[in-house]
């Protein structure tokens, strides 16, 4: 008999790209966890990110279920300096973080990853590669249909 696990290993990832017209470097923040992200966790991450960003903030994200709900609304009401601009429901070509994931997939393709720890290490290595290159982070914005930052 062959043991069978009906629950596959999983690794969920959440990415945030930040930019400012006054500050040249674009930021990249990643969070990994072994289960799906919930809106409450996304709200906590958003709250933490907003504490570190100064001045007006425009939040660009898709209309996924993670970006809706009471917890997200509470953060939006607590931070009125942050207008929301929503992407269409499915438009990865417009979303800079989708461009970043596409880049990571390209650097991970054809790899034999034995488990989620190895996947986590590979994605973390890709994040370090991207963080070392301001040009690479800017390319995610310029390859999307968003206007490029100055």
In brief:
The protein has 150 residues and is of the alpha+beta class.
Describe the protein's topology.
Blueprint: E1 12-18, E2 27-33, H1 39-52, E3 59-61, H2 70-78, E4 84-86, H3 96-108, H4 116-131, H5 134-142
Parallel strand pairs: 3-4
Antiparallel strand pairs: 1-2
Helix pairs in contact: 1-2, 3-4, 3-5
Task: Give a structural overview.
- Helix content is 41%, strand content 13%.
- The protein has 150 residues and is an alpha+beta fold.
- The protein has one domain: Nucleotidyltransferase, domain 5, CATH 3.30.420.10.
- The strands form 2 sheets. Strands 1-2 form a two-stranded antiparallel sheet. Strands 3-4 form a two-stranded parallel sheet.
- It starts with 11 loop residues before the first strand and ends in an 8-residue tail after the last helix.
- The model has no long low-confidence stretch (mean pLDDT 81).
